[in-house]
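Our platform keeps sequence and structure together, in a single record for each protein. Nothing more is needed to write down the fold, since each code stands for a local backbone conformation. An entry from our holdings is shown next, in its original layout:
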Amino acid sequence: MWLVFVDTNILLDLYRQGGESAERQLAALERHKDSLIVGEQVKMEYLKNRQRAIVKGQKDVKKPDKPFIPPILSEYQPAKTWKKTHEKALEQSKKVQSKIELIL
């Protein structure tokens, strides 16, 4: 049976990476959790730098720009739908920001 040493950057990448890459990495760590070696220094470095990685990710999450719709198209159904979709996107953006605040 192999033992695997996990560096601090591997753990911090869970906050830095997005989507499937982070999910695959987390799943791999979970599958091999009985074989992982994580020393005290790694743990302390992780805790020290975790907040910085989360804050950087928070800055990268931008709220969607408001769509510009010329007045002549204000009653055009796709323009109305676009505007409603933007409002929903803003709501979801706020939820994401709130979740990041909770994580911090």
User: Anything to note?
Assistant: The mean pLDDT is 89. The chain has two domains: 1-57, 61-104.
